[in-house]
Queue: 2 jobs
Job 1
Amino acid sequence: MGNALRFLCSQCSEPSPDSDAVAHHGVTVDTVGVSALVHDLYNFEITNQVPQELGKHVVSSRKAQANWYRKLSEAWRETKPPPKSPEEASRLVILTLKRHQKADVEGLLTFYGLPLPHSLVELTTEAPSSQQQGLKFELHTLPVDAKAVADGDTVTVYVSTMDSRESSSVPKAVHVAAVQRSKARAQRNYDRADELHKQIIDAGYRVLNIDNEEILARKYRIRLRGIDAPESKMPYGQEAKEELTKIVQNKCLRVLVFDEDRYGRSVGDIYCNGIFVQESMLKKGLAWHYKAYDRRAELDKWEKEARAKRVGLWAASNPEMPWDWRKDRREGR
């Protein structure tokens, strides 16, 4: 029984190699609460003891608290894959302890810094009904770097050239440069290796090190289809960027590409672990439905839901729309 949670504890506590924000468990600040909860569940299976400080946040007895941890331990082990994000962990706690007092559930979540019930959004499991119309191609990406998120509606992704769609279209010069770079690194000629890598990057590719394996990958800049997030200098611009980063960081994405915009970005729908990313951004009030380019009724409905709840940017009475903001800047207003 303990082995399963020991594995989960090691997985949640493993630091992200590209993260600058690392907390005391060696994980990012966003996931430290998840790691702490897993650690305490594992400790409970060994000692039958709950955290001493928990009593300051809940109203029920230590005996009742032990009952919660027993239930949570079982639920966590049975969930495949196990929760990793704060939202996923919070949902599991709420579902597992749904028959317990609200004050206890919210106190437990607060103790671990996990989202409270009112802050979570319910996401659908189905894609928008019209999502396949006009589909050009589908991408399956390598894990996304946090630094690849430009703002709340744009992210750079990489697709392995071993992918069936990519393998036949790699330019010969890129292939040759990748082989030569590998040889240069083996000979410790790092200046030459860097020079060759620059050639690869200039051609729209990059060599990525993933799990100690070097992978030649093609670069795609993705513009999320159907939404327009606040620009970085607008209110909620940084919050939108942080939310998109939280969703996609270190995840492999499924991207359905429908078009290319005037900036050379692929316009597409992004799915991450079954989550439709545009839905999440709209429901959290961190983007507008971009009706000038997208007529899907679902996206319009999700924006209206966020407006009604006054979440995110809709907390303001009359938030400025990003397309108007960009136009004013172009015209020097």
Job 2
Amino acid sequence: MVAVKPAWLEGLIAETFFGSCGVHDNSRKNEKNVFCLHCCLSICPHCLPAHRSHPLLQVRRYVYHDVVRLDDLEKFIDCSYIQSYTINGAKVIFLNQRPQSKSKGSANTCFTCDRILQEPFHFCSLSCKVDHLVDQGEDLSIILYRIDESDFAFSQFEGLGVDIPYMMEDDQITPNCILENPLQYNDTSGSNENVGNSRGIEAVRKKKGSGFLGGILSLSNRRKGAPQRAPLS
């Protein structure tokens, strides 16, 4: 029996993100960085009102590759044994495998593409895990969760890409990103890959009520103290 990928999963893995939206070609910040699981296509922030009642997933960019927050994706699919990385305080995983040189020796590697991984992970990306299960003839329903649309309120996306900067642009990655212990989060987080240094951000602050977006970039906002008058001589 051949395993069949659900349409939303196949679309998410195959989709090309961060291109300009043809519907809103003349609008600012019209990059397609949201995936609609109901329509199985990528949309831009200006398209969100038309998908108000649909389950949505935000895609981010890290070192020129598409990533999703682990907390978001785990609502749809079991992400265990996929290696994750912590960027700006959020754990993310790659959607697809990345080009690499072949590993040598007896290092722990991805079951699908042979990328070197930290123990105890088996996959470097979502697509590698899905492809491995398909190749093994496994029923993908064992890793898929029922979508509860109440978990994806439209209010969580209000202001996305219009008034709020993207969380992880290529030039906004926090230097010396935290590397998690994979055993600390039930085999779903951690990395030993050196993510390198990038231009720092002046401050990273959580915005109350931001929900889906988590942390946002902001400048320090300090009030100067009242000037002190010199004592009379």
